[in-house]
Task: inverse folding
């Protein structure tokens, strides 16, 4: 994250006193760089960074928490924005190209690990197009070739930018007044020879009317090849814990030969129709090879922008984007589970199987009720093909209206439509129909109900389903969704209202109207719940609007006094009225910056921020999910702990199966999620305090350190299946005494297998989060008295930045404070992705003549599992260190060629069993692909 400015950095961020490690640097003009840094403006120009609407006030030691320049993107060799930002210490990996289940081929940003819905993503300080009804921006829809820099601002910013800025703001600042043509191409491939990704873009722009106007158009194309989990040794076989501290081959209890449970006894069918005992240790189905490790993607993006200075009082501007993004997710064949009627006299069965079932036919009707777990491999893999089309337009005007007052008003409209086509699904009703069989007059086995061309379904052994039967139960599925946003905004500002003797006072007033509207339209099979394969879900339709007024002020109080080089205070207030249950909402902030001398500045800030519930939070219907969770009644401790044993018995588990794998050894529990129109807004209180050092005796050096604390109440979330289980059954910490037995009603059990099924996990204002930590950064740039490649000089730039996570206290249920867990330094079924206590990033860049060489170092400290009740085979993930190397060469003016290696030492990801996320690891946190190479070229005309 290197940002070299050849002039003053007037960082309005510290008008709000936020934590901000990056500071101004002075660059030796003689140090020529091979990689063009388009973030560096012309001499004397002012840069206004994100965090305040009052840019330009001269708080020279202020800056955003982190700045990623255009040069950083070039040096990374990454064609997608996600892969550059995910390495920042302040971000916890969220959805990425390695996310297959769940996935969707999108990339989202998650500041502080508080969730992508709590990170507000802006483009040029304006809201951008969301990809779904969660109102989250897909980072890869932002035109990377137009990015001048990215400002990352931590802490609540709702008073300045409105809802969603609970953890902070990521603002993409785009190039302005581009003139000429620029062509860029990049190709990267893994050392294994797979995962090839091509990105190419074209940027065209020109000034007109003697520089009063400019028009720019940008085209971008990306194609990324998929990688299956079968392509890596560590991911081709699903791993589970063996119960003795090791890992063994595992998988799903839904198997190709059909596992069937009657009276708590699990058996399986063999290919000849006979049966045998089922063993979770040896019979589980390996679902891993068919899943994607890297989701394939094809994206086309077009962006255009223009502005024209009619006069000092009027500049009109417009911009627009069009994005088409196509991705695929692939899962193993459909697992069909549930209670069915088995024909005890079916010719598909062996004589022994008929005898078994007939002996269990207590009512003599010829059918036996059984819970089955069948992997429908004969139908084929489940494939989701998603086609997203989005567009956005902005029309606005701004200008100087005299007396130091300026105005800016704009209207924006964005809309995304997604069409998903699914294959590999089956109809539950048709499966049940095809399983209920009889004999016709000719002695042939037929469906009892022959409607719809029913064909008997032979699930009694692997590979026994005929093509005709597979075709009968298979159903094509399609759904569509839309999300649209309208924003009308206007503000007036004066950066030199009056002067109290320490500098001009700045003030801004504004108003904003925003409307969000979304819908999800599943076909009948999905909405009725008849589909089995991809998760069923009800439709969604709804929206809301919010009307807001806001103000912000910055007041320099003192200057040029002993120990007070400058003292400035700031404040912001926003009133919002929502059409939802949130109604009237107030957000505000206040802070101060105190420069003792030129070398030292102190800063502090308090902010009250909110996140209003999204369209999805409010209006989404019931949908299925299969989160990782462990039924405590299947564990050995359920036999020895009297409290847990009693809870298992009282919740319907037969005494004979307690402590056994009656759930088939499954590490997932079927769960039902859904929205809640009664949700209220989240509120957060953020405190920051920091120091900035720029010693005059060491030119080119700066250091910043900032403490932060964020506390969120009315947290919008599901409780989580794992936490429902803890509430009902207790955990090792409290001797398995139920925290609140009323939550057991949310964990119904199957009458035949006793497995938990359809756990109720709907959204609510439940629990809260409090996180604390320290951000720090040191930068040092110095010219060197030697060079190479015809240059007498060179330059070395060093940057060391990091985050120390002190605490991350998460309480999923406010009513049960004992469930609070500190996720700092942990990972697992409650905390999710690893929350490393230390996240470090260091870059060293050496430039001389036409060459630039850069090394990036990234560090994640060790983490341990968050579940004290269970001893996993992998309780601790060791610290990880990654190195990237890039070399760039300016072949001639306007022509740059770059090569590089990511994951230089081919570091392999940690391998886990029952406490993994997917692919036997955490693929969004730890590099799942191994060493990768890239080459890129940039040509300017």
Result:
């Amino acid at each position: 994250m290197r940002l070299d400015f050849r002039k003053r950095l007037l960082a309005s961020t510290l008008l709000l006193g936020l934590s901000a490690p990056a500071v101004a640097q002075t660059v030796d003009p003689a140090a020529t760089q091979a990689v063009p840094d388009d973030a560096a403006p012309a001499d004397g120009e002012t840069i206004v960074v994100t965090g305040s609407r009052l840019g330009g006030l001269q708080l020279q030691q202020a800056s955003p928490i982190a700045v990623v320049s255009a040069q950083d993107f070039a040096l990374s060799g990454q064609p997608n924005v996600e892969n550059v930002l995910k390495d920042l210490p302040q971000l916890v990996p969220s959805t990425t190209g390695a996310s297959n289940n769940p996935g969707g081929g999108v990339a989202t940003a998650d500041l502080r690990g508080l969730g992508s819905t709590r990170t507000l993503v802006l483009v040029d300080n304006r809201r951008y197009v969301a990809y779904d009804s969660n109102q989250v921006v897909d980072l890869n829809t932002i035109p990377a070739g137009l990015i001048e820099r990215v400002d990352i601002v931590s802490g609540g910013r709702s008073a300045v930018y409105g809802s969603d800025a609970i953890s902070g703001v990521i603002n993409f600042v785009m190039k302005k007044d581009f003139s000429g043509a620029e062509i860029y191409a990049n190709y990267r491939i893994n050392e294994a020879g797979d995962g090839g990704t091509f990105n190419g873009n074209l940027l065209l722009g020109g000034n007109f009317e003697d520089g009063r106007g400019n028009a720019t158009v940008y085209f971008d194309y990306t194609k990324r090849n998929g990688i299956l989990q079968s392509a890596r040794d560590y991911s081709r076989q699903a791993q589970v814990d063996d119960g003795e501290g090791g890992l063994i081959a595992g998988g799903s209890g839904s198997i190709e030969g059909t596992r069937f449970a009657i009276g708590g006894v699990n058996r399986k069918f063999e290919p000849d129709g006979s049966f045998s005992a089922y063993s979770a240790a040896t019979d589980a189905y390996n679902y891993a090879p068919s899943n994607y490790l890297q989701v394939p993607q094809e994206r086309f993006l077009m962006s255009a922008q223009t502005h024209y200075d009619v006069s000092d009082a009027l500049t009109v501007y417009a911009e627009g984007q069009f994005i088409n993004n196509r991705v695929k997710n692939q899962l193993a064949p459909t697992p069909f589970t549930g209670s069915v009627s088995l024909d005890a006299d079916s010719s598909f069965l062996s004589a022994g199987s008929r005898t078994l079932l007939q002996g269990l036919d207590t009512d003599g009707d010829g059918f036996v009720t059984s819970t089955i777990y069948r992997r429908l491999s004969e139908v084929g893999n489940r494939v989701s093909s998603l086609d997203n089309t989005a567009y956005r337009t902005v029309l606005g005007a701004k200008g100087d209206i005299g007396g130091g007052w300026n105005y800016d008003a704009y209207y924006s409209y964005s809309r995304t439509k997604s069409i998903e086509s699914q294959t590999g699904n089956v109809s539950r009703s048709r499966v049940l129909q095809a399983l209920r069989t009889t004999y016709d007059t000719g002695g042939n086995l037929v469906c009892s109900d022959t409607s719809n061309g029913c064909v008997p379904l032979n699930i009694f052994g692997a590979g026994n389903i005929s093509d005709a039967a597979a075709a009968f139960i298979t159903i094509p599925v399609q759904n569509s969704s839309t999300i649209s946003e309208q924003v009308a905004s206007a503000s007036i500002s004066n950066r030199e209202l009056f002067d109290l003797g320490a500098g001009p006072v700045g003030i801004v007033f504004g108003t904003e109207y925003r409307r969000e509207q979304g819908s999800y339209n599943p076909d009948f099979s999905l909405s009725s719940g008849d589909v089995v394969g991809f998760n069923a879900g009800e439709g969604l339709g709804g929206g809301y609007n919010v009307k807001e007024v806001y103000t912000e002020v910055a007041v320099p109080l003192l200057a040029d006094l002993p120990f007070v080089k400058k003292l400035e205070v700031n404040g912001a207030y926003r009133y919002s009225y929502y059409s939802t249950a949130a109604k009237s909402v107030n957000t505000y902030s206040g802070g101060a910056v105190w420069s003792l001398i030129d070398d030292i500045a102190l800063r502090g800030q308090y902010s009250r921020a909110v996140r209003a519930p999204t369209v999805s939070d409010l209006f989404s219907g019931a949908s299925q999910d299969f989160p990782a969770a462990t039924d405590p009644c299947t564990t050995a401790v359920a036999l020895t702990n009297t409290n847990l044993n009693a809870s298992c018995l009282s919740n319907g588990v037969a005494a004979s199966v307690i402590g056994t794998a009656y759930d088939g050894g499954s590490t997932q529990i079927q769960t039902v999620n859904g929205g809640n129109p009664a949700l209220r807004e989240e509120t957060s209180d953020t405190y920051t305090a920091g120091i900035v050092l720029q010693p005059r005796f060491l030119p080119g050096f700066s250091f910043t350190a900032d403490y932060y604390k964020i506390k969120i109440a009315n947290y919008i979330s599901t409780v989580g299946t794992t936490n429902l289980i803890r509430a009902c059954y207790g955990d090792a910490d409290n001797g398995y005494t139920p925290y609140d037995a009323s939550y057991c009603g949310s964990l119904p059990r199957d009458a035949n297998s006793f497995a938990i099924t359809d756990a109720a996990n709907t959204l609510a204002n439940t629990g809260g989060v409090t996180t604390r930590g320290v951000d720090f950064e040191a930068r040092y740039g110095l010219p060197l008295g030697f060079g190479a490649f015809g240059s007498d000089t060179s330059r070395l730039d060093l940057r060391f930045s990091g985050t120390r996570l002190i605490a991350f206290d998460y309480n999923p249920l406010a009513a049960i404070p004992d469930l609070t867990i500190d996720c700092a330094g942990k990972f697992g079924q409650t905390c999710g992705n690893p929350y490393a206590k230390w996240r470090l990033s260091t870059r060293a860049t050496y430039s001389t003549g036409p060459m630039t060489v850069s090394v990036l170092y990234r560090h994640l400290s060790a983490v341990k599992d968050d579940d004290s009740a269970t001893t996993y085979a992998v309780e601790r993930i060791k610290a990880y260190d990654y190195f990237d190397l890039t070399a760039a060469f300016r072949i001639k003016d306007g022509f740059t060629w770059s090569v590089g290696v990511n994951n230089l030492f081919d570091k392999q990801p940690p391998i886990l069993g029952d406490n993994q996320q997917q692919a036997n690891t955490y693929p969004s946190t730890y590099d799942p692909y191994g060493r990768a190479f890239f080459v890129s070229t940039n040509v300017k005309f």
